[in-house]
Amino acid sequence: MTAKAIDRKDLVRPARVAEKPVPPLPVVDLSDTDNASVQYSQHRTKLSTHRTELSEHRTALSEHRTDLSDYRTDLSTERTEMSMRRTGMSFQRTRMSADRTLMSVIRTSLSLISFGFTIFQVFEKLHTAHVVTGDHAARNFGITLVLLGVVMLVIGIIYHSRFMIGLRRIRSEMTAEGLIHGESEYPPSMTLITAVILLMVGVVAIVSMVFQIGPLG
User: Fold this and answer.
1) How far apart, in whole angstroms, are the C-alpha atoms of residue 140 and residue 189?
2) What is the largest CA-CA distance in the chain?
3) Which pTM value belongs to this model?
4) What's the pLDDT tens digit per position in 119-176?
5) What is the DSSP letter of 133?
6) Which of 55, 59, 54, 64 is nearest to 13 (CA)?
7) C-alpha angle with apex 149: 148 to 150, nearest 5 degrees?
């Protein structure tokens, strides 16, 4: 911002100066040199006065143009400031978008893990109750679904972590260069914490299903 902000109401164009004809050249009697010299001197004075009026008007117009230029500079500075803040907020929106993407991965993985574990347990109980005998295909299918959910969750966590690290690095570089405002900090990603906890649950489920041990065995 400039040292003195200019209000748009103060930007009044100077009134147009009425056009005055150039003082006509006097008719001089050259035989009377003294009188001719006085008449020429008076004519030069009138021309000088005419030029002075025009010069004053040009000066007023120049000052008006300077005020307009300062006003445009103020507007440009404000727009730059707003642009920097919008860019800074866009990093926050990008971070939240990455969290939403990871949430989608969590929902899909949770569906696969829970569905696969349910299939495994149902056929395991039916086999224990001697209701069915050939349950290997269903058990393997349930294990496969849980394993697929765990693998998808691992890929989602790795992708999210790499993306967030790169985003933080770019944000830090732009903040250090003064291109954006970076006062707001990135809070811990609760979505990432939830994904890690779900990953641990999925691993425990896989171990329990395969080796028949653990709290879910």
Assistant:
1) 34
2) 146
3) 0.61
4) 888 888 887 777 767 667 888 888 999 999 999 999 999 999 999 999 888 888 888 8
5) S
6) 64
7) 90
